[in-house]
Amino acid sequence: MPLDFLTLSLPLAIGIFIACALIIGTAGTYLAGVADRLADRTGLGEAIAGALLLGATTSLPGIVVSVSSAWQGQPELAMSNALGGIAVQTAFLALADLTYRRANLEHAAPSIGNLMQSGLLICLLALLLVGVYTPPVTFFGVHPVTPLLFAGYLYGLAKVRSAQQHPMWSPTQTKETFADEPPASSSQESLSGLWLRFVLLAAVLAVTGLVLERAATVIGDETGLSATAVGALLTAVVTSLPELVTSIAAVRRGALTLAVSGIIGGNAFDTLFAAASDIAYRDGSIYHVVSHQVLLWIAITIVMTGVMMLGLIRREEQNWGGIGFESAIILMLYALGGVLVMI
To answer: Residue 305: what pLDDT?
Structure first.
């Protein structure tokens, strides 16, 4: 007999929510190792693998939450989960920086791909704002900005790949710069076995995300929290746990470029949550029914991404108390956003 989430009590919904968080965190930990080995075996490199394999797959719980919410007529939860996830994942990169003690993560993992993906993310976030402030014209219930988001993402990835293959810019190599070189043992693993593990872990994340959305809806209804607060501060944080654990796991494995690109590439992919939610939302353009709090998250996330991009360019080697200047600013910006959403 299927579980009826509408009849769940608040304690049971919270229990399911916590269980989903543990499952997502555990699956994400294993996913980092599999993605790192696939990057080596397939020749994609850590920057592209971080964006396509790690970034997109760890985003599965979030996209399930957003699309499911939009389909059920909850646009505020859908959009706040999508955009709150991008903000918290950027903050997670600052936390991953804390775990790497030798130097700032931005310094140790230089990559033209990460810089370009940061620029792509800013463009996609700005395109979301264009959707909000253009007329609410739709075609078959879909706003014209939605296909532009998909096309812009794919075009951006192609340019990232091209820039990595034929770079016109390269970072200065220092004693703390970490080179992306696959270990000799990576060629001994079965490629089909790695792909099978990757797909199974991805399926676990997707199914858990669906259950999480149902539990989060009950928590919001029972506690009186706004959909924006639930999406930005509850579901966004939990569905982003794979990014946190995979980034820290990647840092501990020495896959520094994978750690950074997993966050930045995942954030660029996460803007497509909004596009997918617009398709799922059947009452018109989803961009025109979101609150100013959601727009606030877009603005804060653009600033956070800009600060991170400046850090990747500046590449400060020294850290202060275990964290770089840009990482500290990013954490403060996220905290500010959390306070403003709750006001």
So the answer is: 92
